[in-house]
Amino acid sequence: MFFIRVLKIILAGSLSMGLLALPARAASKDVVHSFQGSPNDGGTPEAGLINAGGTFYGTTFYGGAHNRGTVFKMTENGVVKVLHSFGSGHDGAYPQAGLINVGGTLYGTTYFGGTGSCNSDGFLGCGTVYKITTAGVEKVLYSFKGGSDGQNPGAGSLIDVAGTLYGTTVYGGTGSCTGGNGGCGTVFKVTTGGGETVLHSFHGGSDGANPQAGLINVGGTLYGTTQIGGNGQGTVFTITTTGAETVLYSFQHGSDGAIPRAGLIHVASTLYGTTFFGVADRNGTVFKITTACAETVLYSFRTGNDGANPLAGLIDVRGTLYGTTQYGGGTANCNNDGITSCGTVFTITTAGAETVLYSFQGGSDGANPEAGLINVGGKLYGTTAKGGAGNDGIVFKVTP
Hints:
By secondary structure, the protein is mostly beta strands. 0% of the residues lie in helices and 36% in strands.
C-alpha cells in the first residue's frame, strides 16, 4: 500500500468540540476545467495549484500520455496545456505533490519513478525531485534510492530556503517502522544542482514517523507534521536547517485530534493545521499550536453538513482561514457506501467559528478535494481528485 487512498468514515454520536458550525453562506462555485484522464490532459489532481504571473500550474497523479501523471499549465478561463507527461519511469511517475516557482523555474516531486529500485508496490522507482521550465523541459534533479536517503516524497510540496529545496519522504531513512515500504521517513534538502542530504530520519517513536506533508519556514526554522509516531497518532515538529529535530506536540487521539496529514501555516506567531481524524467520530479537526507547544482544537468536524476528514492544510486570507475537507457536506453519496459525501470548501475564524462555503455534489460538479486552496484576487481556486465529466477530477473556483 503506497498511500491511503480512501478511508471509510465511521459514524459515531459524540458531540463536536469547538464552536458550532454556522449555516452555509452564499458562495458561487464554477468548474474551471474538467480533466479527461489518459491519454489526454491528466487525471486525479491530488495537489493544489500555483499562480505564476497570471498562469496556473499544477500536477495530476494519473493521466497524460502514459497514465503516469502530468505537469500542466492553465489559463484563468480553464484552457489546459500539458507541459510534461511522465512516462519512462526514470523521469518520475505519479506526482502527488504540487509545484513551487523559484525564479521562473518550477520544482516538484514524484511519488514513484526515478532510477532507484523500490518495487514492493509493483511500481518502478522510489520517487524523484525534478525541475521543469514553463515551456515544458523536464529534468530529474535527484532519484531516491529507497535506503537511508529516503523513499516516496508524498503530498507535501517542496519549499525554497535561500536557494536550497527542503522536503519530506513518507518512507525510507535509517529508522525501522513496521508495514509500508520500510523506513519511517525523512526530512531532506536538495540543491538546485541535485545534491541531496538527509537532515533527519524518523524512527517511529517519540520523534514521529511517515510525514505526508511538506514543511514551512518561519524565520529560518522549519515546521512540519508526521501522520503517525509520537504517541502513535502523529506529531507537530520543528527542525533546523542543520537537522536538529524537536517534537512540539504529540497527538493523543482524544479531543485533540489524530493523524495530521497536512502541513501548517503560520499566522501571528501561531501555527494552524488540520488532522484527518479526531475525537470519537473520526471526522477530523482544525487546531492551533503555539511555538511553546500549547495545542488547542478550534473545531471538530461532525458527521453532518460541516465537512469531514481534511487532507489539506489551510490558507490565510486577511486573518480568516480557508480549507477543504475530503468528505462530508450535503447529502450527495460519492462512494456508494451510504456514508461518505463528496467534500467541502469551508472557512473558519481564528476563534473557531466554521462555515461551509460549498458542498460538492459529485458528477460533473466535482468530488473529494484532497488539496488546499489558493487565493487569486479574492477568488479561491482548488482541485478535486474525482468528479468532472470523466470522473478524473476538476479545477474549481469559489467566490465567497
